[in-house]
UniProtKB/TrEMBL annotation:
Database matches in Pfam families: Methyltransf_11
Annotated protein name in UniProt: Methyltransferase domain-containing protein
UniProt organism field: Gloeocapsopsis crepidinum LEGE 06123
Keyword S-adenosyl-L-methionine: yes
Family membership noted in the UniProt record: Belongs to the class I-like SAM-binding methyltransferase superfamily. gTMT family.
Length: 282
């Protein structure tokens, strides 16, 4: 299953990354619209603000060697390399993304500080204790084995290093909230199908995995309210002529994903989809 899923993810991002960059820019992640989600700002600025807010929340002010797991076309990698004056290694399943990230690094004169490669996050080609900061921004949802993924992130982290993982989750199911309903599971299944996801779990479940690994100073947060406006902004921008024309040439999977943007927007509205943060130290 994992090999087939990886192929689907690769093909999805090979086909869609160029269009995303053309229409929406280099940052392939949510934007931050203030804690209450009410701030009015340009979408790309909101995406940069998310990176800044995450660094502040995780209390990471410096790093020498950073791993960006699920690096896309290098948006976060290049930003972190420049801001923290660090060396950043980015991994992705998409050869198209890795090549584009390398090209963008060269254009930004950051080739000496960055490297990008195709690699599986469940079996990383790095020695133990290789990085002092592991950054995973919206890639955990793609992982077919969440525990193995976090175990690999922990393995390559240096003692004293920080892991910051930000990922799509479903609502917690403990206590009075109760288990997911049949309608909620159906909604999630549609999101999985469209965005090449095996499944998502709740933030408390991620925290339990992290505790079992021995991650110290563990903290979690739910920023769903702060990022939820992003999807309506993307929906609006997808309706411009340039985006529509690009979609026609990007393949059915990309078209299907664009037509299904409302799944995420409605998921946030009903409290089913959550934007979970987890940070800890080895």
């Amino acid at each position: 299953m994992s090999a087939t899923l990886n192929q689907r993810i690769q093909q999805f991002y090979d086909a869609s990354s160029g269009l995303w960059e053309q229409i929406w820019g280099e940052h392939m992640h949510h934007g931050y619209y203030g804690a209450a989600g009410k701030d009015k700002k340009e979408r790309r600025q909101a995406q940069i603000d998310l990176i800044e807010e995450l660094l502040q929340w995780s209390q990471v002010e410096q790093a020498q060697k950073i791993l960006d797991v699920g690096c896309g076309i290098g948006g976060s990698s290049l930003y972190l390399a420049e801001k923290l004056q660090a060396h950043v290694t980015g991994i992705t399943l998409s050869p198209v993304q890795a090549a584009r990230a390398s090209d963008r690094a060269a254009a930004a004169q950051l080739s000496q500080q960055t490297q990008f490669q195709v690699a599986d996050a469940l079996n990383m080609p790095f020695a133990d204790a290789s990085f002092d900061f592991v950054w995973s921004l919206e890639s955990g949802e793609h992982m077919p084995d969440k525990a193995k993924f976090m175990q690999e992130c922990y393995r390559v982290l240096k003692p004293g290093g920080t892991l910051l993982m930000v990922t799509w989750c479903h609502r917690p199911t403990g206590g009075s909230a109760g288990e997911l309903t049949a309608d909620e599971r159906k909604h999630l299944a549609e999101i999985y199908r469209v965005y090449c996801l095996p499944y998502v779990i709740s933030l408390p479940e991620y925290a339990a995995i992290a505790r079992n690994l021995g991650l110290q100073d563990l903290r979690t947060a739910d920023w769903s309210t702060a990022v939820a406006p992003f999807w309506n902004v993307v929906i609006d921008s997808a309706l411009n002529p340039g985006a529509l024309l690009g979609l026609l040439f990007s393949g059915w999977d990309t078209i299907q994903a664009a037509l299904s943007l409302g799944l995420m927007s409605r998921g946030y509205e009903r409290g089913l989809i959550r934007f979970g943060l987890l940070c800890g130290r080895k």
